[in-house]
Amino acid sequence: MKSARTIIGFALVLALLGFGRAAAQGAAASVSILDFKYEPATLSVTAGTTVTWTNNGAAPHTVTAADGSWDSGNLDAGATFSKTFDTAASVAYYCKYHGAATGTGMAGTVEVTAAQAQPTAVPPTAAPAPSGPTPSISASNQPIVNGTITVASVVAAQDGWIAVHKMGPDGKMLLTPLAGLAPVKAGSSSNVVVKLDESFAAGAMLSPMLHIDAGTIGTYEFPGGPDTPVQVDGNVVVVSFTVTAAAAPAPPALPDTAGTAAPTIWVLAAALVLVGLGTLLLRRRRAA
Ligand SMILES: [Cu+2]
Question: Which residues surround ligand 1, an ion (CB under 5 A)?
């Protein structure tokens, strides 16, 4: 049951990331229907794989379960039929027109093996509910400065990662590749700087997400590893912000005129003081 929960957890995480459709479809495999055989006749897949048969022959054929549990119906030349195999089993099928359920004539087999079990050391994919502070993350719209962004604040229940996700062409968050990655310690952190692996134009959206650091500590292992997104009440801890235009460059150095004008003023001031003092001295002498 542990592996089943792991698979469900992984699917949940993918769904939260907007990859639900891809996760539901799982792996894909194909079989070519020829006159009068299936190619390959025996196909090996892992549970969850969707197999698509395509009639590349000239004659009509069918893909019919030997046990009668499912049937493609008539497949004319060029037609396709898909079926997802969720359970480990050896599934025999045949063509109603050119074979028999017993496996004689035009027949094939799909060998469905259990999905790869996770190593026992790996915790369930869905991060356990935190017992410490409630994880959170915040970041505001900002320019990219020296190839970095700054996450204003992070609260993590355990050591983990800030994985900066970027958006795909369809505007959905990409699971991978990341825009940038930085480790984050358990507890509260402020102004965590994350170096980006690529540049982004103003207007781009970035989504720093809190992940745990499990498995090999110090190595980001996700997807396909234990460094899953942290969840609070079933929601991943993520914040999205927009990249703003870079701040205006520093103003140029003061013009040369200012550089020469300043000493001139001081020379004039000094001259005035001297003249003033001289006048005072002259008046005192006359008065004496
Ligand atoms: Cu046939």
Answer: 61, 95, 97-98, 106
